[in-house]
Fold this sequence. Notes:
The structure is a homodimer. Helix content of chain A is 42%, strand content 14%.
Amino acid sequence: MEKDVTIYDIARLLQLSPATVSRALNDHPAINSNTKHMIASKAKEMGYRSNMFASNLRRQRTSTIGVIVPRLDSYFMSTVLAGMEKVANDANYNLIISQSLESVKKEVANAKTMFDSRVDGLLVSLAADTENLDHFNTFFQKGIPMILFDRIMPQKNCTNIVIDNVKAGYDATSHLIEQGCRRIMHMTGNIKRNVYEDRLKGYKLALMDHGLTVDDALVQLTNLTRQDGLQMADHIKHMASPPDGLFVANDFCAVSCMGALKANGFSIPGDIAVVGFNNDPVSQVIEPNLTTVHYPGQEMGEIAAQSLINHLNGLLRINTTNTILLNYELVVRASSLRTPPAESR
Amino acid sequence: MEKDVTIYDIARLLQLSPATVSRALNDHPAINSNTKHMIASKAKEMGYRSNMFASNLRRQRTSTIGVIVPRLDSYFMSTVLAGMEKVANDANYNLIISQSLESVKKEVANAKTMFDSRVDGLLVSLAADTENLDHFNTFFQKGIPMILFDRIMPQKNCTNIVIDNVKAGYDATSHLIEQGCRRIMHMTGNIKRNVYEDRLKGYKLALMDHGLTVDDALVQLTNLTRQDGLQMADHIKHMASPPDGLFVANDFCAVSCMGALKANGFSIPGDIAVVGFNNDPVSQVIEPNLTTVHYPGQEMGEIAAQSLINHLNGLLRINTTNTILLNYELVVRASSLRTPPAESR
DNA sequence: TTGTAAGCGTTATCAG
DNA sequence: CTGATAACGCTTACAA
C-alpha cells in the first residue's frame, strides 16, 4: 500500500521541474527528446501512473464518455459496446455504461448520473417509452455533445446513427412477396420508436409497390417479448384466413412465435414464411433457421464512438453530418425460402 | 455554456465560508440544520453540482467500481449488471464496465485501464482462458479490494460469490436419472473455469451415487457455442449407442443441440431427455421447453456490489467472509419430463 | 457551530 | 528548451 508516485517525485530524482516532467509525459513538442526518453523511462521504472483526477480538474474535462442503452442483454448491444470500447480505449477515453431497462424513468436517472459525472459526451439509444429529450437539456445547454444511435429521435445539433429501417423493412417484406406470400402479417414494437415505425413504413410501401393492399388487421403492435410471440401464434391459429407470411421486427420474438406456430401444426415456410430482424444468434438455433436482417453492431458502435471523439477533439463538427446511415443485409435462410434451398435440410 | 457553480459561489451569496458549504452539502453533523437547509436550497436553485474530480483528488478515492465480465450479451450478465447498478447508484458509486470477450489478453488490458482509473474496488468474472490472477497483482499490492463472482478462482483475501455448481450439477444429473435415463452425456466448457469443472464433478458424483458408471466418452468438453451444439448432435447421431440423457452446462448450447437432434429424428424427451443451465430466455423458446438451472443473476450482482461497498465503507471486513454461496433452483420443464407434464403440449 | 488555510497532483501562463 | 507559480474545486485539521 505504498504512496503513489507523482511527477514531483520524478522531477526531484531527475533534477528537473515538475512542469518539464508533465510536458514530457504529455509528449509536448517543446521538450528535448533526450529528456523525454529519460523521463519516460524513469516514470516507468518508478511505476508512475497519471492522476486523472488532478488532470481532469485542471483541464476541465474528463476523457469519459457516457453510454445509455435500453438493455445490455442482446447480442446486438454487446457488439455495439465492443465496438465503442475498442475505439474509446484507442483514443484514451473511458466509458461509463448504464442501461435504462426500457424505462424512461431510469433513463432520466441515468442521464443525471452522467451529467454529475461530467462526461465529455454521450452516446444514447432510447428507451421504449421515451417521448422527448428534455432530460438531456442540461447537456444541450452546456454544449456537451450527444450522439443517438439505433433508437433515435430527431434533434437539432445531434448526430443520429442508424440503418435505413424503412428500406430494410421494405426489403424484408419484398422478399416474402417474392417467395409467393400474399397475406403478410407484420408484428412490431412501440411505434414511438423510429426503428419500429420505419420498419412498418417499409412493410406498407413494399405491399403497395407490389399491388397488395395493407390490411390493418395484419399489423400487430406489441412489446416483442417471448410472451407476445406466443400470443401472436395463438391469434394466428384462430384467424379465419391466417397469413402466409410473417415479418417480425425482432428475432427473439420471431423465434418464440415460430416455435408456437410449429407446435400448432403450421409448417414453416410452407404455410407461413417468416422473416425476423437483427441477426441474433437465436436465428440460427431455431429450425428452420430464420431469415433476418443483419445489423452492423460493432460498426455502429465504432462509428458512434469515433464520431463523438472526433467532435470532442475538434476534428469534425458534429452538426454538419446530421445522420449517418449504415448498411444492413438481408440474410436469407430456410424460414422464408419456398424454393428448396441448397443448404442443410 | 455558463460557468459551473462552485461552493465558493454559494458561500459568497450566503455570506458563509466555503468550508461550511462543503460540510453542509455532505451532511456533516456539526452544522446547524437551518444553515444546512438554506445551503441545500440555494445549491439547488443555482444548479450546483459537486465536482467529483476535485473531491476525488482531495479524498484520494474515486467512488468508482470497476466491473470486468467475459461478455455482456447474456441474459444472465445483464441481470447481474442491473443488480450492481442498482446497489451502486443507491450508494453513490459509479460503475465502469468492460468486457474481456473471453480473452485473457483483453482482460489484462481491462485490468490496467481500471487500475489507471483508480477504481476503489473491482468486481470480476474471469475469461475462459485466464490461468492466474497475476494481472490483478497491482490491485492486491495496493490493497484495492476485488470480488470475484460466478467465474472465480481461489485467491487469498478475495471474496468469491457463486452458486454451488457441484450441487447444481448433481441435481441436474440426478433429475435425469430419476426420469429413467441411464446413459447420460455431459457437455460442458473449459474446465479451467470453476463453473464447468464443478458441474462436471456434480455430474460424476450423481452417477456414482446412483450406481451408474462414469463413461469418459460421455463427457464432452467444448466451447459451448452454437456450433458445438450442432456438432454434438451430429456426434450423437453417429454413436453406436447414443445417450438417453443430456446435461449441457449452458442453455444456449443446449438449445442449439436440441434443435439439431430433433432435425435428426430424435424425440425429446422420449429418446433423449435434456437439461441445460442458466435459465436463459431461450430455454422457453425451444420446443419442448428446456429444463434448466435458474441462476440468481440480479441477486448475485446486488450482493457482489453491496459486499464490496460495505468493505469500502469499513462496514464489513471482506476477508472474513471468503465465499458466498447463493441459492439456485432446478426448473423442470418438458425437455426432461418423461412422466407426462400437466402443462402445454 | 463556523472560519482559516493548506494541500490533493496536474497543467497553463509567463518568464527566462 | 526549461522553470516558477498560480490555479482547478474540494475537504479537513486546527482555530475560534
